[in-house]
Design goal:
alpha/beta; Rossmann fold; 2 domains; six-stranded mixed beta sheet; six-stranded parallel beta sheet; 14 helices; about 45% helix; binds nicotinamide-adenine-dinucleotide
Length: about 350
Amino acid sequence: MTAIWNSPDFDAHESVHLFADEKTGLRAVIAVHSSHLGPAAGGTRFWRYADDAAAVTDALRLSRGMSYKNAMAGLPLGGGKAVVLADSGKTKTPEMLHAFGRAIESLNGRYVTAEDVGMSDADMTEISKETRHVAGLPVADKNVAGGDPGPFTARGVYLGIKAAARYRLGADSMAGIHVAIQGIGSVGGGVARLLAADGARLTLADIDDDKLQAVAAETGAATAGLHEIMSVEADILSPNALGAILNKDTIAALNVAIVAGGANNQVATPDDAQRLFDRGITYAPDYVINAGGIINVGLEYLGDMPVDEVNKRIDIIPQRLTAIWDESKADKIPAAAVADRMAQHLIGRR
Ligand code: NAD
């Protein structure tokens, strides 16, 4: 246990739980970073790790991220995260998910799960057979919170992009504003469609060429190569695919005034947040702009909330971003650092 406390990713986590179930092969870590604002909420990742220590590190790092994200989304939820360690065949059985559900239930609501990489809404349904502390379940009624978070995330990112264009470019409308979008999946594709409807000029990139051509035709967009998209001359770059894509080299090559997209963990290191700031680029901190999905899932867990309430809370994302940019300008520190500072304050850590 000393190893966990000494880990560089240990940040006064309230508790870290290790679960093993011999019968089903379940091995899982649940990290509760903070329950200051409410039950620690965050998805479960199903992943094959290089070693057990890497799984614990991931749970520590991701659970802290969830504390920040939930706090900045204005949700009465703390931050937690679970990882289920996959074997080489990535075996995942209903029985294993039931055992995992019992593990969650044993924490009596201190931790609430939902899907993350490697977990589907069908898996959440299996988990829900053993615990009620689970969200991200399929919903039949489109008027209540829940279901696919992608469109909600896309709407928040779209509103954040509009706020950035207003703040930085003084643009009252997106007509003619050039946005380069990396990744046009659930989030990026939604953002592209919403911006196209506003008359924005789009350049898109995706590793899936068929999807790329289809979305480009639908939105009247130009296309760019995978590397080219990072240095396209445009007003805004919107990363919606990979994490850690803003590093020393890519930041030096950026040809935009604004970076605003839905991908998680876009900035590789705190030095890179400083590099963006030094280049005078307006950056929308990822966990603030991409909170639409967690707002949807969070309100699903908190009770059958109407979808209008989800949208009302997503509408506040531009206000939060503007407050961050104002503070970044006034204190001369990167927007990402301002967001972390605000989140730490909200969870009572500073
Ligand atoms: P997705 O799988 O639907 O879409 C990702 C897209 O990126 C795919 O079209 C894929 O082909 C493309 N892609 C992958 N590698 C690429 C590369 N090197 N260059 C260009 N395109 C590439 O996933 P998503 O749900 O749209 O999520 C996108 C990002 O947003 C992820 O970082 C995710 O963690 C983050 N995010 C998603 C949500 C959500 O609600 N779905 C919420 C918060 C954050």
